[in-house]
UniProtKB/TrEMBL annotation:
InterPro entries membership: BXL, GH, Glyco_hydro_3_C, Glyco_hydro_3_C_sf, Glyco_hydro_3_N_sf
Name under which the protein is recorded: Beta-xylosidase/alpha-L-arabinofuranosidase 2
Superkingdom of the organism of origin: Eukaryota
All residue ranges annotated as the Glycoside hydrolase family 3 C-terminal domain in the record: 103-226
GO biological process, one term: xylan catabolic process
Keywords, comma-separated and alphabetical: Glycosidase, Hydrolase
Lineage: Eukaryota, Metazoa, Chordata, Craniata, Vertebrata
GO molecular function, one term: alpha-L-arabinofuranosidase activity
Length: 228
C-alpha cells in the first residue's frame, strides 16, 4: 500500500495478504499494524474463519516445537549457555554446510579441486579485494563475526604446504583505487592463481540494488591482469 500502491487501505492490504498466504507481518513499529484489521475483515466476510485458522496453525506449531508453551525445565533450549557459541561441533557443521553449498560453474581440464598432496613446492597467488578481508566476506544480516574463527582465502591457503603470495589490488569491493603492479607482481611467478572478487554489503544490500551484474570498479581489470 505504501510503497507499491497495490492496495489503498490497511483493511484491503490485510485481506490481500491473507489470501496470498501471508501469516506474519513485519510492521516496522507502526502503531496501527495491517494485521490489526483482520478481525474487521473477518466480521465483513472478506476472509473466513477457516482461512484464519489455516494461517495461524503453522505459527503455533512452530512455537510449540520451540517449547514456548512447556515448563522451562522441559525446554532443551533453556539449558543452552555461551559454551554452545562457536563450539567445535557447530563450527564443524558450518564447515560441512559451506562445503556442500559450493557451486562450481566450470572446471576446465579438471583444475579443481586443489589437493594438498599436490601443492608442496608449488607457488600460489591469492589476489583481489575478497582475498584477505574478513569484513567483506559476510552477507547482509550476518552475525557479528569473531576474527579468530574466520578463514579468508589467504589464511586458508596458507595452512597448506605451499608458497603463498598475496595482493589485494584494491582493499574494498568498490575497487576505485587499483594497483595493477601489486597484482601483476604477485601472480607473475605463480603456478596457481586464486582471484577473489565480488560485491558485498558495501555495494549491494537490502534497499540498495544495482542496475547491472558487472563487477564493480576496477575488479574486471584486476581479473584480466591476474589471468593474462
Amino acid at each position: 500500500m505504501l510503497g507499491h500502491h497495490y492496495t489503498r487501505t490497511f483493511l484491503e492490504t490485510a485481506v490481500a495478504s491473507m489470501n496470498a498466504g501471508c501469516n506474519l507481518e513485519l510492521s516496522y513499529g507502526m502503531r496501527n499494524n495491517v494485521f490489526m484489521h483482520i478481525p474487521q475483515a473477518l466480521a465483513m466476510g472478506n476472509i473466513t474463519l477457516q482461512m484464519l485458522r489455516d494461517r495461524v496453525r503453522p505459527l503455533f506449531y512452530t512455537r510449540m516445537r520451540l517449547g514456548e508453551f512447556d515448563p522451562p525445565a522441559m525446554n532443551p533450549y533453556s539449558t543452552l549457555d555461551l559454551s554452545a557459541v562457536q563450539s567445535p561441533e557447530h563450527r564443524n557443521l558450518s564447515l560441512e554446510a559451506a562445503v556442500k553449498s559450493f557451486v562450481l560453474l566450470k572446471n576446465v581440464r579438471g583444475t579443481l579441486p586443489l589437493r594438498a598432496r599436490d601443492l608442496p613446492g608449488k607457488r600460489l597467488a591469492v589476489v583481489g579485494p575478497f582475498a584477505d578481508n574478513p569484513r567483506v566476506l559476510f552477507g547482509d544480516y550476518a552475525p557479528v563475526p569473531e576474527p579468530r574463527y574466520i578463514y579468508t582465502p589467504r589464511r586458508g591457503l596458507e595452512t597448506l604446504m605451499a608458497n603463498v603470495s598475496f595482493a589485494a589490488g584494491c582493499h574494498e569491493p568498490r575497487c576505485q583505487q587499483y594497483s595493477r603492479a601489486e597484482v601483476v607482481g604477485a601472480v607473475g611467478a605463480a603456478d596457481v592463481v586464486v582471484v577473489c572478487l565480488g560485491t558485498g554489503t558495501d555495494v549491494e544490500t537490502e534497499a540498495k540494488d544495482r542496475r547491472d551484474l558487472s563487477l564493480p570498479g576496477h575488479q574486471l581489470e584486476l581479473l584480466q591482469d591476474a589471468v593474462q
